Amino acid sequence: MKLSIIIPIFNEIDKIEMLLSNIANIKGDFEVLFADGGSEDGTLLAIGKRYRIIHSEKGRAIQMNTAAKQSSGDVLLFLHCDSLLPEDALTEIEGILDKGFDVGCFRLRFNSNHILMKCCGVLSNLRVKYRHIAFGDQGIFLKREVFEKVGGFEDLPLMEDYKLSMILKGRYKIGQTNGKIITSDRRFIEGGILSTMLKMQRLQYMFRKGVDINIIASMYRH
């Protein structure tokens, strides 16, 4: 298996060093592509020449699709900049693929001991198990042929990961690793944990019901 880790970035100077340290500790042979949407805060200087930087228009879906086209792996892992992988991530991914899955994700744990964040992580993992839907903060990975077959990420201002999962759900089973990805609770802290959880559930419901994604994106930003 040749793995390509694709990370969309835009002005991530406050998170990039921790991510770079995390990547350096991952065991195995893989390539990393940072898909940049026009960072101007020193993020690219921090990455330097350690990993490939792919430039594209701003927009997470566009950035990830652009980098995917320039990657060489037969398995693609899409990673958020504020999520950290376990050291044996490659072994975990291979274990899922060896079980016959073409699509998978990691079990999620937030970097918080708050009871609500623990509940949020558990519910996210149960969503994968019973609803077969994974979000980007869970580190979605899939075979390149599958990604290309479904047309990659749809160019949406928000929830491109949700839409991809909805498309995959009807055609592929999704495997979930035993190892956990650790994701930042920053957005929950900034917006209030319970308020953010309820807001995200509302926006996801609106998305499923076909509400204009631009309206949803505007509500998310505010």
From TrEMBL:
A Pfam family found in this protein is: Glycos_transf_2
- Record field: transmembrane: none
Q: Which UniProt keywords apply?
A: Carotenoid biosynthesis, Cell membrane, Glycosyltransferase, Membrane, Transferase
Q: Which residues form the Glycosyltransferase 2-like domain?
A: 4-107
Which pathway, per its entry? Carotenoid biosynthesis; staphyloxanthin biosynthesis; staphyloxanthin from farnesyl diphosphate: step 4/5
List, alphabetically, the GO terms of the cellular component aspect: plasma membrane
Q: What does this protein do?
A: Catalyzes the glycosylation of 4,4'-diaponeurosporenoate, i.e. the esterification of glucose at the C1'' position with the carboxyl group of 4,4'-diaponeurosporenic acid, to form glycosyl-4,4'-diaponeurosporenoate. This is a step in the biosynthesis of staphyloxanthin, an orange pigment present in most staphylococci strains.
Which named protein is this? 4,4'-diaponeurosporenoate glycosyltransferase
Origin organism is: Clostridium putrefaciens
